[in-house]
Amino acid sequence: MDNILLLQKMIDESKNIVFFGGAGVSTDSGIKDFRSKNGLYNLKTKYSAEEMLSSKIFYTDTKAFYEFYKNNLNCLNAKPNSVHYYLKKLEDMGKLKAIITQNIDGLHTKAGNKKVYEIHGTIYKNHCLSCGKIYDANYVFNAKGIPKCTACGGIIKPNVILYGEMLDESFDKATKAIYQADMLIVAGTSLIVQPASSLVNLFKGKYLVIINNDETCYDTRANLVIHANLNNIFQKLK
Fold first, then answer.
1. Residues 190-199: what's their mean pLDDT?
2. Number of CB atoms found within 10 A of residue 219's CB
3. How open is the CA angle 195-203-33, to the nearest 5 degrees?
4. Is 120 a catalytic residue?
5. For the chain, what is the radius of gyration of the CA atoms?
6. Which residues contact 203 (CB under 8 A, 6 or more apart)?
């Protein structure tokens, strides 16, 4: 059977679908991924991209962190693509019970999805480290140099989980959602980053589907593997 038809059949048969997505979900919205040829990890910067997005660099070289962050993670003008909108349709149908995303771009929320677990945080929430005052993303990205609190002058930090930081309660919610799912669609992620990738091990349902341009270490465990552009796949689904 054709892969698209088989995927559609699995979706039609399932009643509790969870979608687990990574950077590849948003590349067709103009947002860079991490590990591809043109991804963030291949940029030439003061530190490696992984270091740039670490808590160590945020606290020891805040200026360098924000230069990288503002230049590469500003996705305020990005718009959802066909993957995001198809998931909204699935949610409206009552089939999709949760979206678990490693992305911080907020595009699932922009598309209208309600049950979204942003396990690596989001650019849209920021807070002062000194007094806790909340700031939106526009303030942070438009600030000159290091964004400072207007109330106390403290440094503002994005509510993004940096390398070296613990995941928050959204990870626990994601864990519960996967336990309850009868179908797990994993898309646009290399499944390399821990502990996020370990979520796949928790799935005990009927259908595990992996859709990604490149192979992953979980491919042999999946009921269906499709190596293709995500938009090309999701545009063909009903």
1. 88
2. 14
3. 45
4. yes
5. 18
6. 178, 181, 184
The CATH code of domain 1-31+80-120+166-238 reads: 3.40.50.1220
Residue 147: which of 132, 158, 160 has the closest Cα?
158
Q: How far is CA 32 from the centre of its chain?
A: 12
Of the candidates 84, 108, 120, 227, the residue annotated as catalytic is 120
Tokens of 114: 């309600």
Domain ranges for the chain: 1-31+80-120+166-238
By C-alpha distance, which of 13, 31, 19 is closest to 75?
Answer: 31
d(CA 38, CA 210): 22
| Model confidence, pTM | 0.94
pLDDT in tens, 150-177: 999 999 999 999 999 999 999 999 999 9
